[in-house]
Write a structure and sequence with these properties.
The protein is an alpha+beta fold and 251 residues long. The protein folds into two domains: 63 residues, Arc Repressor Mutant, subunit A, CATH 1.10.10; 153 residues, Chorismate lyase. The protein is elongated, with a radius of gyration of 24 Å.
Length: 251
């Protein structure tokens, strides 16, 4: 057991490192840590010192507080890669078992709500699905799909990968997408579906995907902010600043 000693390093900093090792090496994600009283007695420090150490690790996202229940090690976050792939393939690549609950599938006129190049009176397929990994709800999707490229989509089994279905049944290969990411707090309906509290942080992705220049999908996905993070690789190249930019370059 690590001890806290008098010295130049503050006691709250020593306790923070002890708790960090506990959360990262000894406890499984979602495990409770000892109470403030137990930690104070075990390490011979004040509860104010305990509160400061725990608060710093909560701010870092390593610990999480549940009102009325205590403090727990945070669940590991799933890494999201920004490339054109399905949720199903993403989860399988991480050794998780994906599953899908179809909340609704209807024919509706999207109007200006979807970028599918439809006339104002044309319908599209409006599909809402709850995506899970190892049985845990991770994302809620609300999407529009083209009736021209995907006729009778509402008669298909939508509990698997839509991208695989689109490729195998319709022979359509999505080859381009534009994706926008922002943050929101969960409204009551989304919070209930994702089994989080209303107001919990969410990562939101809007993806408009196309095949050979024809828009096929316009979907917004709400991901649990406590389980997901996004990593992007960046370089110093500014769009349009390459050596051919003045001449227009090639396509």
């Amino acid at each position: 057991m690590h001890e806290i000693v008098d010295g130049p390093k503050p006691k709250h900093a020593q306790l923070r490192e002890i708790l960090r090792r506990l959360a990262e090496q000894d406890l499984a994600p979602g495990s409770p840590i000892p109470s403030e009283r137990d930690l104070a007695e075990r390490y011979g420090v004040s509860r104010i010192t305990v509160r400061a150490a725990v608060g710093q690790l909560v701010a870092e996202g390593l610990l999480t507080r549940a009102k009325g229940r205590g403090t727990f090690t945070a669940r590991r976050r799933y890494e999201l890669q920004l490339y054109l792939a399905s949720f199903t393939s993403e989860m399988r690549a991480r050794g998780l078992e994906p599953s899908t609950e179809v909340v609704s599938c209807e024919r509706q006129a999207p109007g200006s709500k979807a970028s599918l190049d439809l006339d104002s009176d044309e319908y599209a397929y409006r599909i809402v699905r709850l995506r899970k990994a190892d049985g845990a709800p991770l994302a809620l999707e609300r999407g529009w799909y083209s009736p021209h490229l995907l006729p009778e989509l509402d008669r298909c089994d939508l509990t698997g990968s839509l991208y695989e279905l689109i490729a195998t049944r319709y022979g359509v290969q999505l080859d381009h997408a534009r994706q926008t990411v922002w943050a929101e707090t969960a409204d009551a309906e989304t919070a209930k579906a994702l089994e989080v509290r209303k107001g919990s942080p969410l990562l939101v992705f809007r993806r408009v995907a196309s095949a050979q220049g024809r828009p096929c999908e316009d979907v917004i996905s709400w991901y649990r902010g406590d389980l997901y993070q996004v990593t992007m690789q960046l370089d110093r190249t500014v769009p349009g600043s390459g050596p051919n930019s003045a001449k227009g370059g090639t396509r």
